[in-house]
Amino acid sequence: MIERGISQDRMNFLWGLAAAVSLVFALRLVNLQILMHSHYQEIAERNRTQILPQAAPRGRIYTRDLAAVAANKPSFSLIYFPGRINSVEAMDKMADSLSRRLGMPFDELRAGLYRAVKKGAPVRLAENLSSKAMFSISELKTMYSGIDIVVEARRFYPFGNYLSHLTGYISKMDAKDWAVYGKDKNYGMDSRVGKAGLEKMYERDLKGRDGGIYLEVDSRGKLSRILESRKWEPGSDIYLTIDSKMQAAAEAGLKASNTGKGAVVAVDPRSGAILAMASMPDYDPNRFVSYSDEKKYDNMKELPEFNVAVQGTYPPASPFKIISSIAGLDSGRMDPAETFLCPGYFDAGSRVFKCWEKKGHGKADFIRGMAKSCDVYFYNLGIKTGPLNIEKYARMFRLGRPTGIPLPDEKSGNIFGPSRRAEKKSYWFIGDTLNLSIGQGETLVTPIQMAQLISAIASRGAFWRPYYVDHVVDFEGQITFKSKPEKLSQAELKDRTWELIREGLKEVVLEGTGQTVKIDGVEIFGKTGTAQNPHGKDHAWFVAYAQLPGEQPEVAVSVLVEHGEHGASAAVPIAKEVIQAAFRGRLPGSRALVNTLASAGSGAVSGSTAPAGGGR
Amino acid sequence: MISTASAGLKKGRMDWVLFFSVLTLIAVGTLAIFSSVSVLPHQFRIIRTHLIAVPLGMAVFAAVWSLNYQIFQDQWKFVYGAVLLALIGVLIFGVVDKGSRSWYRLALFSVQPSEFARIGLILVLANYLDKKITSIREFSVVLGALLLSLPVFFLLIKQPDFSAILLTLPVVLIMLFAAGANLFHLAIILGYSFIAALFPILWTVIHLNPELLDSPLVNYFFHLSDFGWSALSFVLAVGGAAYLLWVLSVKLYSNISGVFFGGAALVVVLGFFSGVMVKHQMKDYQEKRLQVFLSPEADPKGAGYNLLQARIAIGSGGLLGKGIFSGTQSRLGFVPERHTDFILAVVGEEMGFWGTMLVMGLYVMILSRIRSTARLARDRFGYLVNCGIFGMFMIYFFINFGMLLGLSPVAGVPLPLLSYGGSNLVATLLSLGLVQSIYARRYALV
Description:
The complex is a heterodimer of chains A (616) and B (446).
Chain A: H1 9-35, H2 37-48, E1 49-54, E2 61-62, E3 68-80, H3 88-102, H4 106-119, E4 123-126, H5 131-143, E5 147-156, H6 164-167, E6 170-172, H7 175-181, E7 192-194, H8 197-201, H9 203-207, E8 211-217, E9 223-230, E10 237-240, H10 244-256, E11 262-267, E12 274-280, H11 286-289, H12 294-299, H13 308-311, H14 321-330, E13 340-342, E14 345-347, E15 352-354, E16 362-364, H15 366-372, H16 375-385, H17 387-396, H18 418-423, H19 430-437, H20 447-458, E17 462-464, E18 469-473, E19 479-482, E20 487-490, H21 495-510, E21 523-531, E22 539-547, E23 553-561, H22 567-582, H23 590-599
Parallel strand pairs in A: 2-10
Antiparallel strand pairs in A: 1-8, 2-3, 3-4, 3-5, 6-7, 8-9, 10-18, 11-12, 11-23, 13-16, 14-15, 17-20, 18-19, 21-22, 22-23
Helix pairs in contact in A: 3-4, 3-5, 10-22, 14-16, 14-17, 14-21, 15-21, 16-19
Chain B: H1 2-9, H2 16-37, H3 43-66, H4 70-74, H5 76-93, E1 95-97, E2 100-105, E3 110-111, H6 113-131, H7 139-158, H8 162-179, H9 183-208, H10 216-223, H11 229-251, H12 258-281, H13 284-294, H14 303-317, H15 328-331, H16 343-376, H17 380-404, H18 422-440
Antiparallel strand pairs in B: 1-2, 2-3
Helix pairs in contact in B: 2-3, 2-16, 3-18, 5-6, 5-7, 6-7, 6-8, 6-17, 6-18, 7-8, 8-17, 9-12, 9-13, 11-12, 14-16, 16-17, 16-18, 17-18
């Protein structure tokens, strides 16, 4: 070694230190680049990519005759990708220029920008942009990084209010929805969910699987390029049992009625399939879809979501006489040939009960009593039959029980009778018997219960669970759900009873209170009613079923016009149009009929072809 | 090792292993720089500067190599004068960048004199220690070395360039250490530096956690950062404590000299005053860097974000890397300072584990060659110069790698030969030229 008067130990020590530290570095690099590689790679991927969820087009909703009630159309949304430029001043400035270009409130835009930065994820600032707005935004895109426009499928209800109570609507999630769907990865904070009706009940089917655009962004959030877009899977289409023309007739009829309020339910007595279900007042579900209309939503606290058809309860009035008659005839206590004199009133001893016809109906047997809806005849019938008997048959005909239609909050109405009174530890009076037999008093029914009832008369006692979804088809064309008619119960009556009831109901249409429903070539059996209402004008009822001569009954309808006063004048014409629509194309001179229908305000349903709903 | 080395040494005037290690590092660095700046708007300025710096550095390397290094020992006063002049000049004529006045702006590029000053200081100190080697174990020699360095540090603080201080101070200590200075003396200096650094760090910690101020002791300590009664009381308390300990040790008949206690008290007090000075000189961004080192999670979108993103870049590179010009972290701007201080992140991301291992291996190789050259140097001056350059490389290597791997604070320290930075590259090649010059004029074996 060279002698320099200096020890090399210190140098050797430094070299050893350097070697030891580099070993530590090497181990650290092994850990970082090999053991933790996938972890860091994932972060790096997340860094450079931002996923813009693209809502899958919701499944469409079709009527039986393939009119699309709910479809989708393309819409342009303004997206903001948060980047590193996220100072409050920069965002306020951006929100200011955007609000001036879009005419949207500054606060709303700023809140959106803040939300994006806070979550570190893209946010939709505005939806359904007009072409003018898009033009001015494309200018802004060069000034502010992070702003972009994407195309999305947007829910669209081509016919507006049409069938709105059944389809429901979609809107932004609230806290309650988030509790339900939050765990599902298919849902994001700004996903839309069904809030009512079919949209809510079939949410998971209609939703589909959201897609996403994977975007490469730089550290300032500026869009670098689109990496890939994962295609969405559209939601399943729902095919309803609803007949578009009958529905249109029902809605137009209700709207044109003297109060414009009420409900129409038409069912197929062979299966319980709902052919039309209208409830007025209704609403336009389109108004909830869009983002900027949220203020409107706040103003819509009195949204007419109340579905009269399943939630409205009314005294059944004269249609209840069907049950009174059945009770009397089937129990054998009434001879249909027995006549009672109607002087226009009935003296019950302590009180006088009036017939609706002040002049009286004279002598009436069962058929005449039914046809003229003579109250006095039914007072006598009720006394002879006995209230317990009537209550028993009312139970057999499922009054006081929900029909089981798959809709939320169906009301069960109220059954009325001596045993019910006894449960409540109260007394039963003769007057109660009289009220019971003509369907007044405490009996309450919903329009759909009445439809189920008249449908059971048509089918000789078959009670079906009403349903309105026929089948569900997923995006690959596979049928994922098919409804089967479900018989709830069967009312067993003597054949003679069925015959007499049919005769009576036929006489109502031919000679009695429901004559205006008559349609050439169709046999119609019906019963009108006027429900006394102590709080205002009377409610008008009409229940009917119809068949082609010599064939099975095909349609059963119940119509209620709230405060419509007389069943014969308010409810019957609506039922007539619905029945006419049911038999369209199969009657002599049908073409002319359909044409008049189309021009009679049901123009919304313009054809049986699905409207061109964009998106797919 | 010796046999293979000496076999090659007989003929060669050039250490090819060192030379090719240097060339490979420059090549890897150039690739990484080109890749990382290719998306920047001012990329051509950077590439142009780099393409000027590389040949310039090689020319300096060759020139110094051909020059007999002993001239620097003879002309040490000239070297020392040039260093001080350059550092004084930059305070007058320099331009300010990031709060520091440490650049000379020239027509095509800027020059950072502190890079060259460090090498000048190594030469001056090597000469000093060479002359004083017989009395190296006396404290006066250590103090003399520090006094020689003091003007340089003073001028660096005036800029202020803390990174340069952070790099230069250890070099001075390593040279003293290698020259065989008394470890106790080094411990005093280390203790002094430690206290001088500890105070600002503790104050920053307290600043980060204001709830600590509820404790009266912490509150008192925090207010020491301002001169005043509390500072005076602190000095008196330290002096008193040292005196009491001395009295106690005398009573216990121990043989510890009073100088020890006086020295300890002096070190603490001097360290404290230096700490206060450093604290008052610190720029905001420097304080922020300190904070980030102390709690990197506190500010994920700020300065800690940078370090995190750099680490993500390295980690995401994996074994083979994403390929050159394909790193997403660096090219999309997530990694800051990617062509300078964080260049290793680019290498790690684009060339993977093999890339980082190659770079590290080359550094270890260069360190090894400098050490061998030191062993072969024909005189003590050459040996000491090599020790200084070894220390300089080692500190660069430790701090830059350590920073990216989360083992040392975020400091603006480049990776020599790899990072973009003309002054650093030329100065580094100059130092390696010195090593080569020493190698070429080594003591002829047998």
